[in-house]
Amino acid sequence: MASRINPISGFPEFSPAQQLVIDNIVRLICRTYESFGYTPIETPAVERLAHLVAKGIEGKEVYVLKRAHGLDDDSDAALALHFDLTVPLARYVAQHYSSLTFPFRRYQIQPVWRGERPQKGRFRQFYQCDIDVIGDGKLPLSFDAEIPGIIFKLFSEIAIGDFTIRINNRKILTGLFASLGLRSEDGVRAAMHTIDDMEKTSTEEAVRRLRDLEVAQADIERLLLIFRTEGQSNEDTLSLLRSMSVNEEFETGVNELSEVVAEAPLHVMDVNDPIGNSCIDQTGKLAPPIGGNPRARYASSFRIDLRIARGLDYYTGTVYETRLNNNPKIGSICSGGRYDNLAGAFVDQALPGVGISIGLTRLVSQLFDAGLLKAPRATPARVLVAVQDRSRFQECVSIGHRLRSAGISTEVFLAELGLGRQMRYADQKGFDIVVFGNAHELDRKCAKVKHMRSGEEKEISLSQLAPFIHMQLE
Amino acid sequence: MASRINPISGFPEFSPAQQLVIDNIVRLICRTYESFGYTPIETPAVERLAHLVAKGIEGKEVYVLKRAHGLDDDSDAALALHFDLTVPLARYVAQHYSSLTFPFRRYQIQPVWRGERPQKGRFRQFYQCDIDVIGDGKLPLSFDAEIPGIIFKLFSEIAIGDFTIRINNRKILTGLFASLGLRSEDGVRAAMHTIDDMEKTSTEEAVRRLRDLEVAQADIERLLLIFRTEGQSNEDTLSLLRSMSVNEEFETGVNELSEVVAEAPLHVMDVNDPIGNSCIDQTGKLAPPIGGNPRARYASSFRIDLRIARGLDYYTGTVYETRLNNNPKIGSICSGGRYDNLAGAFVDQALPGVGISIGLTRLVSQLFDAGLLKAPRATPARVLVAVQDRSRFQECVSIGHRLRSAGISTEVFLAELGLGRQMRYADQKGFDIVVFGNAHELDRKCAKVKHMRSGEEKEISLSQLAPFIHMQLE
User: Fold this and answer.
1) pLDDT in tens, B416-469
2) What's domain B383-473's superfamily in CATH?
3) What is the pLDDT of residue B72?
């Protein structure tokens, strides 16, 4: 059947099976963020256009709202859909400053909109999953050190393969650029972009662009040496940086980076930690780490990379990027950094912050496309109760209630259709278990239970149904 | 400190403490919908304006998007924010028809936008939480009977006081109106609104409006008799309806309503059901019902009310409304019904459906205002680890990891501040438990644990920390 629908490009929409996978990832993100004390907030989809413009919207192609049949009040003449969650956070913190407790740890998972020309992998609506912590006046570097630990825990649990969290400090770059005579805003920005692009372009291209910025040949060579530290150990990179004498800005950046890199591993559980080990869980077992000692894995997943610049202008210290080792083409799946003053446009207080953002829609789309995420089920229910004898409908519904009470999501097949149709339904939606409600077994207070993947069938007494199914689902 | 923010009216924003409560309600809604096999979908915030217009947008004041610096392609010239989740569902089902399995049970929790003139209790952006089930060609009345059972379970668990789910069938009304000579679309609509408004206006007003529609005095009296059946038992109302001879439409409506009302209680667990009782849960206990036998409570919460008409034109059979018994002014918190053909504008197949929608933002706003929902905590973490001796910071961070591994969300206080400041922070954010990290106790592999509400303090060995805190949090 042909429908008369012309899909809107750039506004992704997922199948029910995919949406279930996405929702599970979102729940894992929420749980992880919350386990560290980040609290959820939500801001309206719109902000005043003037607030968005104040933070710079070049290239973001903001969508402005207008009413279809304009009521003639001007109250929303200049409302626009937010293009990120950072500007809304700034406005939120400024507006509610007096009722918030600082340091304010918040997370926010919402769609954002950008009216870009649609093309593959570019979306006009996509989800961001942000955490940020905002200090009142100051915010110690411990917060910079904690965030990659949270991200590490999260991506380890999503289990999308090995990844590397890369860290840098913008002051190292701005210090370097200043030492080369690049001080104008445009010059620094162009140099940042050159460094940021080094991974996708060639060394020759970087050299050409730095020459265009009138950087001397000797300086270019020195820069390339520094930016080729990729693959070195964090210790070696820090030694190199400490050996250099550039300027105060550079030195501050090196010191900050050293401090953050030194503390970061603390924020990942070490199963060999004697203090830690003595805090066992409720059941007396230590939760088993996935894939070995997390802190040992972290050591190889957390790297200084001096090329990380982050395009956005507002970062002033630590910057992060995260890439999948086996799928570098996906680009950074999680980026962020430190900013000195979140809400300067709105309030007089200095509100420094540090945060990170996962571009969820882009990430899951690419993982689906690459086959790295599977979407095997089109129902959140694990069990279908098939009504074989319509005269026993009431008992079938009752089985559904009791399985739900035992925490097993269960659909009872309500339509009066033959068993063949019901089984096809179970198969197409991907139920794990079908319970058959027929007189023969119900008369003996039993039901036949079919495990759909193995095809195994077993007659189970109703009193054992829930525990049996729990076991089957494990 | 005064911020330079002028809030946008009609776009609600909640405090962190309120947002935590809202998120918990949303999770409960998801869990309940999913336990019955409704699968989550999400549609983009925008639809083509032409699609929205096709379904009637009078009074909805649609927001259209335009780009701030218009790229000059016309591809999104006519995109608008959706004003409900039903039109997007229709478009979704039509567009993905061939890859969906029917009956298609979906739920959808998203904001919707209406450019109404802002006034108290009216929002321009608000969340709807919809469930619908769509049949391919036909959909039996069992689905109409199941939905109020789901809503009953949900609102019982949200625990916002007694409520009444009211049910009617539009065919009863349209049959009656036709018998009075009201057949024009405008006439029927005006009569529907009159009936729908009877609860908030007076009988006199209803009489006046029916007279304006040229309904004869005798007929008006007969109508009022019918619409005064409120408070009667469902059986008495059905008897009255069955005794009336009106027309075929009316009779079909009465039969449908009878069938749905007869089956509805099945879809609520009956703890006295011998079949049900024999399905015990995993741990061998039957999940205790909240406040007695649910089906017995349902009997008094589920009422026929012939005045329920639902303003929207597309309902063709069953209609539902739900009100809080002690807060009738809040109005209907959950409404919906049956429609014969969801997606007629898009596809040729008949796609009948039945569904219901919770207006979440309006509901929680009013419950917060009325003090019926409390928001005591501004953090999702239950435990704060206060760092009393900075030299033991590493061990404090380690305690955080291990509590999290045991499923206890825990924030470690990272900033170097005195204990007084840390306790004020714990108090303001509403942590339940503070664990003190100081040398005196850590040296003996212990920590002091304070229960914030009771003020009780106890020294606990690190190995017993997680189980002890689990007990304290119960």
Assistant:
1) 999 999 999 999 999 999 999 999 999 999 999 999 999 999 999 999 999 999
2) Anticodon-binding domain (3.40.50.800)
3) 43
d(CA A6, CA A11): 12
* C-alpha to C-alpha distances, B206 to A102, B198, B211, B382, nearest whole angstrom: 56, 6, 9, 54
Contact in structure between B414 and A278 (CB atoms under 8 Å): no
Architecture per CATH, A16-161+326-369? 2-Layer Sandwich (3.30)
The A residues from 241 to 260 touching B (CB cutoff 8 Å) are: none
Q: Report how far residue A125's alpha carbon sits from residue B45's, in angstroms, rounded to the nearest whole number.
A: 8
Shortest Cα distance from A241 to chain B (angstroms)? Answer: 27
Specify the CATH class of B16-66+73-369 in words: alpha beta
Q: Where do the structural domains in chain B lie, given as residue ranges?
A: 16-66+73-369, 383-473
Q: Respond yes or no on whether the N-terminal peptide bond of residue A103 is cis (omega within 30° of 0).
A: yes
Query: E strands, B68-158, where?
Result: 79-81, 104-113, 125-134
Average pLDDT value for residue range A229-258 = 92
Residue contact A37–B381, C-beta within 8 A: yes
pLDDT in tens, B20-41: 999 999 999 999 999 999 999 9
Cα B212 vs. chain centroid, distance in angstroms? Answer: 37
- Is it true that B16-66+73-369 and B383-473 share their CATH fold? no
Residues of B in contact with A63 (CB under 8 A): 65-68
**d(Cα A434, Cα A324) in Å, to the nearest integer?**
38
Residue A34 Cα, gap to closest chain B Cα (Å): 6
pLDDT band at A204 (very low <50, low <70, confident <90, very high): confident
Phi, psi of B458, deg, nearest 5: -150, 140
Tokens read off for A298: 């972290």
Please report the residues numbered 393 through 432 in chain A whose beta carbons come closer than 8 angstroms to any beta carbon of chain B.
Answer: 393-395, 397-399, 401-407, 409-411, 414-416, 425, 428-429
